[in-house]
Design goal:
6-stranded mixed beta sheet, single chain, alpha+beta, 8-stranded mixed beta sheet, 635 residues
């Protein structure tokens, strides 16, 4: 056998890119169904949606008494009120259902039992210490995106949301073939000239770490036909094959000749020291990598060239837990009694990292799924002010943070759709979406704490969406407004519309649930109420706020409200009837300087993609007349 002559060595990045492109469908992922309880460290193949809401019913958030809030009005230290058992209150423990007519909970320590009943010294507003249905998880809400590695907290949230089985990436089987006449197994007594074989066992661990299933074969001596037979057998039984040793330029280094005979070699030799004699090939439609025999070279070769293939087959990605400094987007207040771990989402905006606090309640398990890390508030610190630099302990890698689009503003289910599509992109770009309402989002954009703000704010005087608000908040500046979608806003009501609600004029006779201040939906409601000559004080529930369209839909579906305003897609998802109120424009505001960065270009490409449009058509209630159109708004 002639020696292998390296005509050139390929740069590592070029070799890897060339190989991954050449493999094409050879590294296409496979899926399988697994029980959620067995899904730890598996990677979701597709987005997972909640079957049930959590909590399933309105429940007590504290031990104490459930009361009728209207009967506590006027209670104070100087004028305590006595409540009668059975009529005015019942005793409840944390997690107990709160049913009508009771609508609030008073903590046990704030009550005093007397012969005549229970004495209270302060009024209880409606929904005090009550966890409403769907507070944490709403049926139909996306719990996890595709390509998400399942953690212990995810298992708990999936089960709470009624999901018992999920589709995950099938673990790729990786055949590992150690070759060499001189190598022996570790349990054998080596003689002079023998080398203890250890690389294949290292490869097994590395494959497992990347989510694969290693299949290690017996040592094959330096014989062309025996190595060829072993490679063909491994190709038949696995998704990819690693051949160790025999990849260099010696007279008994057969691997490259065998792979050229049975397949195609794309790279032989890379500009890496140690690790130069790497073979990147494909045979029988599957990846085959020849790895040099020296242990350090072997490790570096697997890490640089086998890992990307295994990760793509397994749907896994790199992760790590390190600390970084980030600017806090919202004030955090904490008690001196505790060391508090606040879950945050993190992204890089310009030259600094920004972290946005998530839900802090002990029952808000979804915040752990969404979190990128923790901002730890020490026991002796009362909190941090907005704009202050804090330390964040990451639950993901800095590389993931750097590829994150910080999206702060109005909520819509289409953000989940784009987030899911992004998760399936090879670039590994993420969308971190925080729902603070259109106005709150524009203010975050103003402070440099967001890349994109979804907004749908109506100017009552002109009837034009978003432009006047951008001019007001960004004086003497040029901003970009990317047109998103047209949406149908309306009133979500119970199936069959039993109360015969026809429009905004009927809100004075039903129980309503509203969106938070600054939300575009609330601005539209106020505009419609004004048109109808209705004061907000005439609408029962006007001050009852929900953070998302899905949360509004959940309260209507659960019977806690007769009606709420939101988009058609949320009503459709929750099986509610819908009375259209009007069309609106849901757009995206951003600064011109970020328009060309790769992450934003990916976002804009997906916004106009056929797959995105198809998914929104399934949800219903959207139009795409100007989607992707970009306009300059001058303040």
């Amino acid at each position: 056998m002639k020696r292998n002559i390296y005509l050139k060595t390929t740069p590592v990045e070029e070799a890897r890119d060339t190989y991954m492109e050449a493999l094409g469908d050879a590294v296409g992922p496979k899926q399988e169904k697994v029980k959620v309880i067995d899904a730890l460290d598996r990677v979701t193949f597709e987005a997972v949606y909640a079957v049930y809401s959590s909590p399933l019913y309105n429940s007590a958030a504290m031990d104490g008494i459930a009361v009728i809030s209207s009967r506590t009005v006027g209670a104070s230290e100087s004028a305590p009120v006595t409540l009668r058992a059975g009529d005015d209150y019942i005793i409840v423990d944390t997690g107990d259902p709160i049913k009508k007519p009771y609508d609030a909970v008073i903590m046990a320590e704030d009550t005093q039992e007397t012969e005549n009943g229970m004495l209270i010294r302060s009024a209880a507003p409606a929904w005090q210490h009550v966890r409403p249905v769907g507070e944490d998880i709403v049926a139909g809400e996306m719990i996890l995106t595709r390509c998400h590695k399942i953690r212990p907290i995810d298992i708990g949230v999936l089960l709470s949301g009624g999901v018992t089985e999920i589709s995950v990436f099938a673990r790729p089987k990786v055949g590992i073939i150690p070759t060499g006449t001189e190598i022996v197994e570790p349990y054998e007594d080596p003689e002079e000239g023998d080398i203890i074989e250890s690389n294949s066992r290292m490869f097994e661990a590395m494959v497992k770490k990347q989510g694969g299933i290693p299949c290690r074969y017996d040592i094959v001596p330096d014989d062309y036909e025996e190595i060829k037979a072993s490679v063909l057998k491994a190709l038949e039984e696995n998704d990819m094959v690693i051949v160790n040793a025999g990849s260099s330029a010696g007279t008994e280094d057969f691997t490259v000749h065998i792979l050229r005979e049975i397949g195609e070699v794309f790279v032989h030799g890379v500009a890496m020291k140690p690790g130069k004699p790497v073979i990147l090939a494909k045979a029988c439609g599957k990846p085959v990598i020849g790895i040099p025999g020296y242990p350090v070279s072997a490790y570096l070769a697997v890490e640089n060239f086998a890992y990307p293939v295994i990760r793509k087959l397994a749907g896994t990605g790199a992760s790590g837990e390190i600390n970084m400094e980030a600017v806090l987007s919202r004030r955090l207040v904490s008690s001196l009694k505790h060391r508090e771990y606040v879950r945050v989402r993190v992204g890089r905006v310009g030259d600094r990292y920004v972290c946005a606090p998530l839900a802090r309640g002990a029952g808000a398990a979804m915040s752990m799924v969404r979190a990128d890390g923790f901002c730890i508030i020490p026991q002796e610190v009362e909190g941090y002010e907005a704009g202050e630099t804090v330390e964040v302990t990451l639950l993901c890698s800095p590389e993931e943070i750097d590829r994150t689009i910080v999206c702060t503003g109005s909520h819509d289910m289409l953000l989940d759709v784009i987030s899911d599509l992004m998760s399936g992109e090879s670039e590994g770009i993420r969308l971190s979406s925080t729902h603070v309402g259109s106005l709150g989002g524009l203010m975050a954009l103003q402070r440099g704490e967001a890349h994109i703000t979804p907004t749908h704010l109506l100017d009552e005087e002109t009837g034009i969406y978003n432009e006047s608000y951008i001019r007001l908040l960004f004086p003497n500046q040029e901003m970009l407004l990317v047109k998103g979608v047209g949406r149908i806003q309306g009133l979500m009501v119970a199936p069959g519309n039993p109360l015969n609600i026809r429009g905004v004029e009927d809100l004075t006779r039903v129980r309503f649930v509203n969106r938070q201040r600054g939300a575009g939906t609330r601005v539209l409601l106020d505009y419609k109420l004004k048109q109808a000559g209705i004061s907000p004080s005439e609408v029962e529930g006007y001050d009852a706020e929900a953070a998302t369209h899905m949360a509004v839909a959940a309260q209507v579906a659960g019977g806690e409200a007769d009606c709420g305003m939101g988009v058609y897609s949320a009503a459709h998802t929750m099986g509610l009837d819908f009375i259209p109120v009007g069309k609106e424009e849901y757009d995206f505001a951003m600064r011109p300087e970020i328009y060309e960065i790769p992450e934003i270009k990916c976002f804009l490409r997906l916004l106009t993609s056929d797959e995105f449009r198809e998914k929104l058509v399934e949800l219903g209630g959207y139009s795409f007349d100007r989607t992707g159109e970009t306009m300059i708004v001058r303040g």
